[in-house]
Amino acid sequence: MKNICFYFQIHQPIRLKKYGFFEIGRDHYYYDDYHTEEQIRILSEQSYLPTNKVIGDMIRSSNGKFKCAFSISGVALEQFELYAPEVIDSFRELAKTGSVEFLAETYAHSLSSVYDTDEFELQIKLHADKIESLFGKRPTVFRNAELIYSDEIGEKILNAGFKTVLIEEAKHVMGWKSPNYIYTHAYLNRLKLLVRNSKLSEDIFLRFSNHTWENYPLTAEKFIGWIAAAPEKERIFNIWMGYEAFGYQHRPESGIYDFLKAIPYHAMEQQIGFALPSELAKQKEVAGSLTAPYTTSWWGHEKDLAPWTGNDLQNEALSKLYEVGVRVRLSKDRPLLHDWLLLQTNDYFRYMSHKEAFGSNYESPYEAFVNYMNILADFLDRVKSQYPTSVEDEELNALLQTITQQEKEIAAREQELNKLKNKLSKTSGK
User: Fold this and answer.
1) SS3 category, 17
2) 347-352 long-range contacts, CB within 8 A, separation 24+
3) Fewest Cβ atoms nearer than 10 Å: which of 172, 294, 376, 424?
4) Rounded CA gap, 423 and 224, in Å?
5) How far is the C-alpha of 116 from the C-alpha of 104, rounded, in Å?
6) How many distinct structural domains can be found in the chain?
7) CA atoms of 401 and 288, how far apart (whole Å)
8) Are residues 274 and 318 in the same domain?
9) Which pLDDT value is given to residue 387?
10) What does the angle CA 227 – CA 231 – CA 236 come to, to the nearest 5 degrees?
11) Domain containing residue 196
12) CA distance 51 to 73
């Protein structure tokens, strides 16, 4: 039986305020709360809330047969908690249906998988903790920010405890292979790879409202017909996109909601089902392995890191940020640690791109760079005040490892103590 796996990404950066050179050392608050709140409210009202209602109706009308997954960055969740708590409530209602799955990712939607392995692991745990606390279930499937992946990153994901990861259909990885199968890591067959069907995903996300597209208008019957007509052996169709496609990028009058609502009906008519990523991960049949020696993403024609690392401005900002990771992680200063997380959001580096600055509120990549570097200069001064550069990174890293080990030992002893207390209370109660 063929199955469709829908997955929707939700991420919005916290807007940075205009931060001048002479504010360095004087102003430690970097965020434009007004524009951040305005953007999240617009998206919530035009996209997230109405689409969640549609998804809920689809699940109920199909008796739970329609299923889909979400990946919501920690940064986006923080904004919902502050400015649109009703969005969190609506996702909780979806979670109760049992037909929705929440995926793990980096908390800050960051590039830490490329630049800082320790930070990568910490953000994964922080995000998984957040998802579990909000929706009652810990995620078991991982999707990296922007579907960034390589063989090396796959190793890190497996080491972080995940056995399934979502990746992009990049030509130099797939070659002649179809995305409509389950694959494994190049040399670690315990890690399963689910591959995005780029064409079918972008037929909805990019082309749905395009009147010049040869397949316009796209109907649910036509879309499901393409899947039904695929070779019988191709049984998994991963349709993944940004959630803003519904109601915001494609307005309700485009027919996007009518299209979405009709998907379950036409799928069931063709005996096509729906599956969550965790359900697909349980399938034992795999089509082989995929090798990804170079880092891929779901952006642009090249499917690489160029949107974030394609010029000197971006590389300068990223190197300056991540070179202080060890020092920041030694800190117990909560505002500093929170700023560290937020400043890693990868959108800020994409705004510095000459080609891919989608969503930027800056007039040029250079303006985005200067504003970010002014903020980063203030942040680095705060880090330096706690851990001077005269102390070597190796020395700090050794100290961090010692502290981490001590914290683990304390946690283990506290666990043993709690067990003894429980045992004592049961004994005394007899």
Assistant:
1) coil
2) 347/13, 347/109, 348/13, 348/16, 348/317, 348/372, 349/111, 349/308, 349/309, 349/314, 349/317, 349/318, 350/307, 350/308, 352/311, 352/313, 352/314, 352/317
3) 424
4) 58
5) 18
6) 2
7) 38
8) no
9) 75
10) 55
11) 3-281
12) 18
Angle at 115 between CA 333 and CA 140, to 5 degrees: 85
Locate the DSSP E strands across 243-383. 273-274
List C-alpha distances in Å: 396 to 117, 378, 389, 415: 16, 21, 10, 29
Residues 37 and 106 in one domain: yes
Q: How large is the C-alpha radius of gyration of the chain?
A: 23
Q: Is 16 helix (H, G, I), strand (E, B) or coil?
A: strand
Please state the pTM of the whole predicted model: 0.89
Element (H, E) at 250: none
Q: What six digits make up the tokens of 403? A: 């502290």
Which residue bears the tokens 């063709």? Answer: 270
CA dist., res. 38 & res. 357, Å (int):
20
Whose tokens are 């109907």? That residue is 219
Instruction: Give pLDDT tens digits for 254-301.
Output: 999 999 999 999 999 999 999 999 999 999 899 999 999 999 999 888
Task: Return the structure tokens found at 301.
Answer: 């024609």
| Torsional sign, CA 386, 390, 391, 392 | positive
Residues 317 and 277 in one domain: no
- How far apart CA 192 and CA 286 sit, in angstroms, is 8
CA 173 remoteness from chain centre = 21
For the beta sheet containing 182-184, the strands, ordered from the edge strand earlier in sequence to the opposite edge, are 142-143, 164-167, 192-195, 182-184
Query: How far is residue 227's CA from residue 385's CA, in Å, rounded to a whole number?
Result: 59
Q: Cis ω on the peptide bond leading into residue 217 (within 30° of 0)?
A: yes
pLDDT digits (tens, 9 = 90+) for 85-113: 999 999 999 999 999 999 999 999 999 99
Polymer length in residues for the chain: 430
What CATH number did the domain enclosing 239 receive? 3.20.110.20
Give the count of alpha carbons within 13 A of 22, CB side only.
Answer: 0
